[in-house]
Specification:
71 residues, mainly beta, four-stranded antiparallel sheet, 6 strands
């Protein structure tokens, strides 16, 4: 996940060869976006433009959680 902290957009690069569904949540746990990454070769951009500055969490299907900071 880069850049982090970020402005209006972050990029995610998968380390797995299978499709993954990621959930972007706010600090209260409310899901605000769902992102699908198809395989390791794909980078995925996530726009944070419509969200206020703050802390967000990206949760993977296997329980990993990554913190995103939007400036």
């Amino acid at each position: 996940i880069f850049p982090n902290p970020s402005g209006d957009e972050v990029r995610i690069q998968s380390l797995k060869d299978t499709e993954q569904v990621l959930r972007l949540t706010d600090v209260y746990g409310k899901m605000i976006n769902q992102i699908t990454i198809n395989d390791r070769a794909n980078d995925k951009s996530i726009s944070l433009r419509n969200y206020p500055a703050g802390v967000y969490f990206l949760k993977t299907e296997n329980g990993e959680v990554f913190r995103l900071i939007k400036n």
